[in-house]
Task: inverse folding
């Protein structure tokens, strides 16, 4: 696993690339977000994301690229266990905790607070 | 016969209508700005006790019109027409405010040029002898505009430094016939109607660059039509180009041979203090030119510090659908010349 330094460098580099894309191109935040999920998925599919996680720890698991990685790994795992249909059933296996908690926490925050502008 | 038309795009009023009274209501950020003490009402927060920003905005317009009539000591039934518009889809602020005010209503849309469009049309109704008293009102609200045009604020989107801050504010003016009010008042003498221009800007944050060519075109047209120069005015104000667009207007006017160096400013540069307030390039929105013009500028005219001014309201005529479909941003600017009359007619 990585240490503080590698986490800082790798996580920081990923975020810096995203910020530069946002600042220097007409792409919106939603574009950058989606782009990084897809790039994470592609890197994961090529088998390169796991080594990055081993090297940088949270520096690789916290940025949104990790979400793409988890989508792909979940699908691949179920593909092995259940055959082609597993690509569909497994895609949200590893990410379901993140997605569900985002919905639940989002719900409670929306119930309790009002935006102030 | 169009005998009140001057040149290609300018109307010259026979009996320049009186801008009898005006009222302004703003939000907290505007109240803390450098013009804070020139506004009539400052709301304590962006909601002012309402359950949504949209409800707050239409309440703000209603408050501005009611205050206007109070200040002018005029009952609602004496008002012939109300012309109002805002930035929201289906003009909900104007329409809903008019529902409660029960004044014969015409909704107008010119994006941030609405204040000038309304004032010019009101003057036309009065000088055309169709009305004795016309209210021209407009409003904008930071929260409602962000939600409709960009991202909801709670999304926390980063903004580029050239973006502008939509003014939370509403301004209303009362236009009347000069024969009823022959004294010393600001009068609307000319109205220059602009053409829609589009130089291909697509970034919905970059309103200043998008609107500047329209502003420069209307100003040049006004000077040609009226045979005046920038030096004939004590102050020339554009609506809401802020710091980015203001520079472009000065450059475009210089290319056309007009020196804007001395007496030109932009409402978006005046309403906030960009060094101390988080407003990026400056203010924008229908409310920006309305509360600046109907607030500090009108005060200065009454105090005799300004005699003749030209206000060019600038509007970006985009919709969320058009920019999501990759269309560029068409823009417009209208200008009104306002002059402080000595006693009696001009």
Result:
């Amino acid at each position: 696993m990585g240490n503080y330094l590698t986490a800082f460098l790798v996580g920081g580099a990923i975020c810096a690339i995203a910020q530069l894309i946002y600042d220097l191109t007409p792409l919106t935040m939603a574009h950058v977000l989606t782009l990084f999920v897809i790039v994470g998925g592609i890197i994961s599919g090529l088998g390169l994301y796991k080594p990055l996680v081993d090297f940088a720890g949270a520096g690789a698991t916290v940025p949104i690229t990790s979400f793409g990685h988890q989508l792909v790994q979940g699908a691949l795992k179920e593909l092995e266990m259940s055959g082609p249909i597993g690509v569909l059933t497994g895609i949200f296996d590893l990410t379901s905790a993140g997605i569900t908690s985002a919905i639940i926490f989002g719900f409670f925050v929306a119930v309790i607070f009002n935006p102030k502008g | 016969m169009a005998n009140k038309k001057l040149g290609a795009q300018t109307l010259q009023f026979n009996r320049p209508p009186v801008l009898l009274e005006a009222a302004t209501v703003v939000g907290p950020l505007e109240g803390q700005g450098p013009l804070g003490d020139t506004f009539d009402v400052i709301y304590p927060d962006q909601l002012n006790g309402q359950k949504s920003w949209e409800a707050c905005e239409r309440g703000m317009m209603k408050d501005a019109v009611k205050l206007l009539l109070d200040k002018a000591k005029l009952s609602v039934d004496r008002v012939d027409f109300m012309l109002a518009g805002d930035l929201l889809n289906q003009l909900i602020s104007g329409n809903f405010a008019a529902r409660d005010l029960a004044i014969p209503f015409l909704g107008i849309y010119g994006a941030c040029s609405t204040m000038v469009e309304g004032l010019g049309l009101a003057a036309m109704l009065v000088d055309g002898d169709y009305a004795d008293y016309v209210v021209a009102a407009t409003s904008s609200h930071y929260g409602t505009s962000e939600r409709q045009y960009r991202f909801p604020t709670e999304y926390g989107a980063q903004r580029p430094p050239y973006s502008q801050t939509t003014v939370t504010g509403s301004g209303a003016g009362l236009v009347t016939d000069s024969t009823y009010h022959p004294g010393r008042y600001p009068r609307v003498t000319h109205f220059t109607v602009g053409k829609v221009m589009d130089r291909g800007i697509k970034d919905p944050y970059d309103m200043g660059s998008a609107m500047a060519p329209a502003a420069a075109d209307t100003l040049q047209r006004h000077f040609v039509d009226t045979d005046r120069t920038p030096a004939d005015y004590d102050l020339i104000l554009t609506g809401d180009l802020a710091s980015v667009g203001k520079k472009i207007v000065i450059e475009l006017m210089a290319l056309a041979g007009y020196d804007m160096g001395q007496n030109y400013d932009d409402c978006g540069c005046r309403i906030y203090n960009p060094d101390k307030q988080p407003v990026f390039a400056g203010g924008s929105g229908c409310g920006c030119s309305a509360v600046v013009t109907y607030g500090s500028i009108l005060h200065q005219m009454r105090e005799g510090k300004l005699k003749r001014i030209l206000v060019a309201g600038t509007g970006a005529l985009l919709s969320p659908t058009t920019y999501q479909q990759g269309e560029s941003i068409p823009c417009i600017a209208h200008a009104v010349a306002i002059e402080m009359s000595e006693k009696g007619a001009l």
